[in-house]
Amino acid sequence: MDKYTPRNILVTGGAGFIGSHFVRQLLQTADNLFIVNLDALTYAGSIKNIADLISYPNHRFVKGNIIDRAIITEIFMHHSIDTVVHFAAESHVDRSINEPGQFIQTNIVGTFTLLDVAREVWRQRYALDPTQCRFHHISTDEVFGSLDKLEAPFTETSHYEPNSPYSASKASSDLLVRAYTKTYNLPCTLSNCSNNFGPYQHDEKFIPTTISACLNQFPIPVYGDGSNIRDWLYVEEHCQAILQILHHGKVGDTYNIGGNYEISNIDLAKLICTIMDTIYPTLNPHAELITFVKDRAGHDWRYAISIDKIQNELGWSPSADFQANLLKTIQWYLQLARAETSTVSI
Ligand code: NAD
After folding, report:
1. Per residue in 17-61, pLDDT tens?
2. Alpha helices, DSSP H, located in 127-189
3. Disulfide: which of 49, 151, 222, 258 matches 305 by Cβ 3.0-4.6 Å?
4. What are the phi and psi torsion angles at 193 (to 5°)?
5. Burial class (CB in 10 A: 0-12, 13-18, 19+), 81
6. Is the CB of 138 under 6 A from ligand 1?
7. What is the predicted pLDDT for the residue at 343?
8. Burial readout 303-326 (b: 16 or more C-beta within 10 A, e: otherwise)
9. pLDDT band at 346 (very low <50, low <70, confident <90, very high)
10. CA–CA distance, 224 with 296 (Å, rounded to integer)
11. Is 161 designated active site?
């Protein structure tokens, strides 16, 4: 396996959920690396997610938008950026159904802007030599559409069949990455990952919503009959997989990443409730809060992803510890809620 070594890395969306974990992991594991963390701090991003990282001398946070070509160019020039790891995106399917315009801007135009600046600067500086520069794009399994119960999991060669404005915008960005590799020889890699969970995820997503409903004794909203199935991966393991691709991935290739842990939404909600019954007991079982709500328009029924390629070629595998990671996640949210309550009462 060839080894690529980043030196000056631009992480986009590094104040969001997955991006903040990735920056933390980089700072804790990599030497001789300078990180510029560019984030627009939309409703989904927060400086609080990276409060513990701001003082690292090799980490610079920049508030800015990925569709702003001038800022991107300035960062590339000023910090001699040789590597991009691109997380920044509008990421919530429900919002994409209600207001798709921002998804087109950030996910498509923003990705185009980054690719185009990288092409221009790296052509002059490195003649696009893949040993000198690299662009890794983070995407989702949702670009592949929906599976039936008995269908085989998505592979890297599955057709793109996105069903929501979110997944269509991510699919478009993936195709731009492909086109920049094929047309301009921009050295890119791409990964499509299943659902992530862990600390720092925004409240609007399923697991934080469920935990927060349990803590506040609110209804736990479950779409339709709750039978929709997702594959789940602990966020830190996703970040490890990305690092593996960045260092050892083949330029021009895509890699699927997943947790090998499929579970229906209703079973996941019940599992969280059972854990909450143990660590945060209330008068009635938390599962009594589960409330079925009108299904999401175009709701994909099942996602499942084959990770054979990344396992066989790069030696990455998820841990078999879904329940332990879920417990860790719930405990983190519980601690956060307690800290916030104690701050308010002071
Ligand atoms: P997130 O919504 O938590 O974070 C996105 C971050 O991007 C935020 O900090 C936000 O402020 C920033 N951002 C948004 N628009 C921007 C813009 N125009 N310019 C600069 N910054 C901007 O999302 P996440 O869950 O951390 O997802 C990160 C990436 O991973 C996304 O590309 C998403 O499609 C992909 N992904 C997520 C999951 C998941 O389960 N969360 C699974 C697979 C892939």
Report:
1. 999 999 999 999 888 999 999 999 999 999 999 999 999 999 999
2. 165-184
3. 258
4. -115, 155
5. buried
6. yes
7. 65
8. bbbbbebbeebbebebeeebeebb
9. very low
10. 8
11. no
